[in-house]
Please model this.
Amino acid sequence: MSNHQITFIGWILFVISALGFCIASIGSFWAMFGSVFFLIACLVFMIPFFRNDR
Model:
C-alpha cells in the first residue's frame, strides 16, 4: 500500500467516527455542534484526494 492510500483510509475512518459522534450526540446541541464541525473538518481535509493535480 502506498502512503497516499493509507492516508486516505485514515481519513475515511475519521469520517466514520465523526458520523458516529453525530449519531451519539442526538439530543445535545453542543455535542452535535462539535460533531458536525468535526465531520466538516474531516471532509475538508479529504478535498485534495478528489482534486486533479494538473
